[in-house]
Amino acid sequence: MDCKSIYSGSIPEHAYFFLNKSPSGGIGRHKGLKIPRLNKIMRVRIPPWVFIINNNMSILKILFYPNKILREKSKIVKKYDNILKKNILNMFDTMYKNNGIGLSAIQVNINKSIIIIDILKEKNSKLIFINPKIINKKGYIKSKESCLSIPNKNIIIKRYKYINIKANNILGKKIIFKCKNLLSICIQHEIDHINGKLIIDYNK
Ligand code: CO
Questions:
Q1: Is 190 a catalytic residue?
Q2: Domains of the chain, with CATH numbers?
């Protein structure tokens, strides 16, 4: 999602992660990033599942409408391996390079159900959702959206104001995420990509 209106300042108060319990009760630290114990409600600060691995900047090619690949349904992710992590890091590089606030893997020709989001100007609030699904929704909000795959087009779309989603994190653990407003809009936009749906479809 390429959106002109971007949150500034701190991470929205309403963004909470609920992490499911892990058999080990915690997974420790990884290269200085504190990874929180699971089974604990936490406010999003540093996303717990961003692993720092050797990352040579890779900017991927974004597919543009009317490329048919954008209409494909993304496959469920089953393997939580280094290829997946590399895919995700490359997606962030690509999204930031293109001034996006959200990106779906299919937009860079990776057929996996992965969405990444960072709505903050500071570009320090990486959110990663694998196999995301909306499980609850409430209220409506109008948004003016643009898309990295459809340059120079804005479409007004009626979205849910509040959503709860379930997804997996980069380790394959289940998470529930609650959000509203821009974050909610952005997640709905990216989940549409997973289903092969584009903003222009709302114009009909
Ligand atoms: Co888009």
A1: yes
A2: 16-49+62-203 (3.90.45.10)
CA dihedral 47, 48, 49, 54 (to 10 degrees): 90
Using DSSP's 3-state secondary structure scheme, residue 86 falls into helix
Catalytic residue among 72, 122, 145, 190: 190
Do 181 and 13 form a contact (C-beta atoms < 8 A)? no
Three-state secondary structure call for residue 201: helix
Listed as ranges, residues in the chain with pLDDT below 70 are 1-56, 204
Distance CA 128, CA 41 (A): 17
Per-residue model confidence (pLDDT) at position 2: 54
What is the model's pLDDT at position 32?
Answer: 37
Distance, CA 102 to ligand 1 centroid (Å)?
7
Q: Report the alpha-carbon distance of residue 77 to residue 101 in Å, rounded.
A: 22
CA of 34 from ligand 1 middle (Å) equals: 31
pLDDT digits (tens, 9 = 90+) for 68-86: 999 999 999 999 888 888 8
How many A from CA of 51 to the centre of ligand 1? Answer: 25
